Amino acid sequence: MKIKKTASIFGTLVSLFLITSCQNAKVSSKPNILLICVDDLRPELSSFGANYISSPNIDSFAAEGVAFQKHYVNAPSCGPSRYTLLTGKYGPSGNNALFRRANKIKKGTEKIDDSMPEWFKNHGYTTVSVGKVSHHPGGRGGKNWNDSTEIEMPNAWDKHLMPVAEWEHPKGMMHGLANGQQRITSASTDVFQSEKGDDYTYPDGAITDEALKQLRLLTSNNEKPFFLAYGIIKPHLPFGAPQSYYDRYDGVELPEIAHPQKPKGKTTWHGSGEFMGYNRWGLNPNKNKDFADEVRRHYAACVSYADAQVGIILDELKRTGADKNTIVVLWGDHGWHLGEHAIWGKHSLFEEALHAPLIIQYPGMQQKGTTTNAIVETLDIFPTLCDLTGIEIPKYAQGESLKEILAAPNTPGHTAIAYTGKASSVRTSTHRMTLHKDGFVELYDHTTMEKENKNVAEENSEVVDSLKRVLNNRLLD
């Protein structure tokens, strides 16, 4: 009996040792990363002040993290904005920015710094991308964006996935309407649509399904931490979402469009070519209030549809238990004008095109459910994730870690830079200055009622000179 008892005690101690060791290993392992990218999402969310919007899932997530109310993207277009997110560097202003980088890698004539997913991959992470993370959903080129010989981000992802369902190919998914319909031309495609059906009626349902599948695979294998990037297409044009989401806005009173007039003088205003190129039944939202409100309701429906997808993935993360060791980032790739400055779309250097939501949550976070008005930019996400995971921040990363702000949301931020092919802009806590390639300057004082409706450059030469130095120093680094 003594021998059996001793053996039993020994076995128990070994078991306890193994359990404790496993637990310690799990606690000390590097946190996972879940990056959620939402296309064309301006801060049109209840948690960002748009109280008429139904966004319960993102709002619940914000209540468990830190919401950056003054986050600005580095370019008002999908391709170059995602370039800065995924490389941590300023880059070309066109939508082909990442493909240009890929071509340089292919040529092999110069050293190209690791992208963010490649950096984490080289530091022991399994990297998986689902949906629209880089500019092309699925990260491939070719006529239908499914040519495996044309990779948008070489060496970045262990898996770079894009389900197509009945939309046939990634390009069909990107501009997909209901039930497999594809945009053949913009002019023959309605600018908005709402069809009865469940979430699979539109492309994001299939993308979310694949993201769930990958999340389950990643969480069932604890050998390596994971970096899962999940990209939702809506609310990108054309504005299509299941009828049930549109119905949420039946009878909801929309706020008046702020400063709807076309600005006077030289600005980065444009004629909303992308939006106006769709079938609008001969209507112009700048001249027809009812039509403008209908467009806004369909945009809101798309936001609610995207919000539902976010809820599905976050619920699954929690169900697996991996939420306890996962950093979650929700990021909008740029803003979107809904009639402000008489623009319907992105591509300007006004506030509306550059202001996008950013929410970060991580294990052990002390400041849950707080907001910060610190000015930050997309470029900061790469160094922040390195800092939170304990991985070295690469010297070439041009942003700043937000770890200090996450710990103390009242911490001041820094200037935010943005650019197009024709101009560049800098945002401070008080001003925005936009410098055109020909030297013309727009300066807006955000401490006044006029904000970006009155150019005050001529009477503020010292501010202009100071911000020119900031802009030039940052972009030339």
From TrEMBL:
Q: Which Pfam families match?
A: Sulfatase (PF00884)
- Cellular component GO terms, alphabetically? cytoplasm
Q: Which cofactor does it need?
A: Ca(2+)
Top-level taxon of origin: Bacteria
Q: Which UniProt keywords apply?
A: Calcium, Hydrolase, Metal-binding, Signal
Residues making up the signal peptide according to the UniProt record: 1-25
InterPro entries assigned to the protein according to its UniProt record, in alphabetical order: Alkaline_phosphatase_core_sf, IDS, Sulfatase_CS, Sulfatase_N
Q: Give start and end of each Sulfatase N-terminal domain.
A: 31-391
As one GO molecular function, the record gives:
iduronate-2-sulfatase activity
Belongs to which family?
Belongs to the sulfatase family.
Q: What is this protein called?
A: Iduronate-2-sulfatase
Q: Per the UniProt entry, what species is this protein from, by scientific name?
A: Flammeovirga pacifica
